[in-house]
């Protein structure tokens, strides 16, 4: 197979000790493999420099506090916010729940509306449903265009001043469709609604600048960005975070506690109750350094070339339906006539190709595509043309078996 990638090789697979030779790992949208630099940062954090943060008066704890806060600064420089706008959370799911419980609980009234899209991950649906049910608010859903993007013309036509909040995926975890987040933000703001962008699948594969987007909240998970599990980021505009009540109570998030009444620390500390995932933050710092050293423009171009080759090759196998727009970011969903995606996944696994099969936590999207499930290949910095070739050879085998 000829590939468009030859001009821009990105040969990083040797950085990833958990990827053995000949294994095509194509499930990065679920979670990415970890480079040695991240593994080393975690090992150093526990094996050499470990102590708690923010409370210890001894030097080791002071040093760890500096390292933890340096990670916060690094996240801020990575996505374009300021450090006091960065809340460390467990992952995107917790970040969305935090906003749904804290901001929404305070602002949402009966009769208000929330706007989501048809392609959202369950993490960006269910927290809003819970908040809406509590407030007596309703949810509206932006449809997709024919080529499976969030339809921003439809959004502009349907949004009203009753819509107080909008939450949209920057990149779809099923289709790879990229949202024009700046335009979506302008539409949300035109009626005074706040907007949260779910950047889980965007941050690992394109440069993100929250200031340029102009959104109000942005969330992502460390483990999809070559970092550890259990650490993620909620970025929120300072004035919004400052006005929000705590999400969880506990140690660290307080100013003063008496049995009569407690007062709270300023943001972001107010939202980080309990001992945080200290070493997770250090691992995330290393992961950001890792992707920044490669360069997100390069990563984006690399994955775009792999997606283009995959889409072309799969389309050549008659009976394979490929979903999503041609310029999908890093992710290709497909289905083969008469074959359950789980069978595709099992047969590909026998050829040492790891893909995801299922509803990808996006059941409303599956319903709108008219399928129960899809097979999904998703790429990362360690993939190359060899992985596309292995996938296509595996799909030829699926076709022979079911043909
Ligand atoms: N949103 C999107 C678009 C995702 O892809 C995912 C993870 N599949 C999530 C939210 C939830 O992320 P996490 O499970 O890491 O909290």
Question: Brief overview, please?
Answer:
With 403 residues, the chain is α/β, with parallel strands linked by helices. Helices cover 39% and strands 16% of the residues.
What does this protein structure show overall?
It contains 13 helices and 15 strands. Strand 6 (194-198), helix 7 (210-213) and strand 7 (217-221) form a beta-alpha-beta unit. The radius of gyration is 22 Å and the shape is globular. The protein has helices at 36-47, 59-79, 92-107, 126-135, 152-158, 181-190, 210-213, 238-243, 278-294, 296-316, 341-350, 363-369, 385-402; strands at 24-25, 86-89, 113-117, 138-142, 163-169, 194-198, 217-221, 232-236, 254-257, 262-264, 320-322, 331-336, 353-354, 356-358, 374-378. It has a 7-stranded mixed beta sheet with strand order 2-8-7-6-5-3-4, sandwiched between helices. It has a 4-stranded antiparallel beta sheet with strand order 11-12-15-14, with helices on one face. A two-stranded parallel ribbon has the order 1-13. The chain has 2 domains: 5-28 and 296-402, Aspartate Aminotransferase, domain 1 (Alpha-Beta Complex); 42-292, Type I PLP-dependent aspartate aminotransferase-like (Major domain) (Aspartate Aminotransferase, domain 2, 3-Layer(aba) Sandwich), CATH 3.40.640.10. Mean pLDDT is 95; it is low at 1-8. It is of the alpha/beta class and 403 residues long. Residues 91-93, 121, 123-124, 169, 173, 198, 200-201, 221, 361 line the site of 4'-deoxy-4'-aminopyridoxal-5'-phosphate (PMP).
List the helices and strands and how they pair.
Elements: E1 24-25, H1 36-47, H2 59-79, E2 86-89, H3 92-107, E3 113-117, H4 126-135, E4 138-142, H5 152-158, E5 163-169, H6 181-190, E6 194-198, H7 210-213, E7 217-221, E8 232-236, H8 238-243, E9 254-257, E10 262-264, H9 278-294, H10 296-316, E11 320-322, E12 331-336, H11 341-350, E13 353-354, E14 356-358, H12 363-369, E15 374-378, H13 385-402
Parallel strand pairs: 1-13, 3-4, 3-5, 5-6, 6-7
Antiparallel strand pairs: 2-8, 7-8, 9-10, 11-12, 12-15, 14-15
4'-deoxy-4'-aminopyridoxal-5'-phosphate binds next to helix 3.
């Amino acid at each position: 197979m000829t590939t468009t990638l030859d001009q821009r090789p990105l040969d990083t697979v040797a950085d990833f000790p958990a990827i053995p030779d000949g294994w095509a790992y194509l499930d990065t949208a679920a979670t990415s493999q970890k480079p040695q630099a991240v593994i080393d940062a975690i090992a150093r954090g526990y094996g050499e420099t470990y102590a708690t943060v923010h409370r210890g008066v001894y030097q080791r704890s002071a040093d760890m506090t500096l390292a933890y806060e340096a990670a916060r600064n690094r996240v801020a420089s990575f996505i374009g916010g300021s450090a006091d706008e960065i809340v460390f959370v467990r992952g995107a799911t917790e970040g969305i729940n935090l906003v749904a419980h804290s901001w929404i609980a305070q602002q949402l009234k009966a009769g208000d509306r929330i706007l989501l899209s048809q392609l959202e991950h369950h993490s960006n649906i269910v927290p809003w449903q819970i908040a809406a049910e509590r407030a007596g608010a309703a949810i509206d859903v932006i449809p997709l265009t024919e080529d499976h993007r969030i339809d921003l013309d439809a959004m502009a036509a349907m949004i009203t001043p009753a819509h107080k909040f909008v939450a949209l995926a920057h990149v779809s975890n099923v289709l790879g469709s990229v949202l024009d987040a700046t335009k979506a933000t302008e539409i949300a703001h035109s009626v005074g609604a706040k907007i949260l962008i779910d950047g889980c699948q965007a941050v690992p594969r394109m440069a993100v600048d929250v200031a340029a987007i102009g959104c109000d909240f942005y969330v992502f998970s460390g483990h999809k960005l070559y970092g550890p599990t259990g650490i993620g980021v909620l970025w929120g505009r300072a004035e919004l975070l400052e006005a929000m009540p705590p999400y969880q109570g506990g140690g660290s998030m307080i100013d003063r506690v008496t049995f009569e009444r407690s007062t709270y620390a300023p943001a972001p500390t107010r939202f980080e109750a309990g001992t945080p995932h200290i070493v997770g933050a250090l691992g995330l710092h290393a992961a950001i350094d890792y992707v920044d050293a490669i360069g997100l423009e390069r990563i984006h171009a690399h994955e775009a070339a792999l997606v283009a080759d995959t889409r072309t090759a799969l389309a050549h196998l008659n009976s394979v339906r490929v979903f999503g727009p041609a310029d999908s970011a890093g992710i290709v969903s497909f289905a083969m006539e008469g074959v359950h995606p789980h069978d595709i996944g099992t047969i590909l696994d026998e050829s040492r190709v790891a893909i995801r099969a299922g509803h990808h936590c996006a059941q409303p999207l599956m319903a709108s595509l008219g399928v129960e499930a899809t097979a999904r290949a998703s790429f990362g910095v360690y993939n190359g043309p060899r992985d596309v070739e292995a996938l296509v050879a595996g799909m030829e085998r699926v076709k022979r078996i079911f043909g």
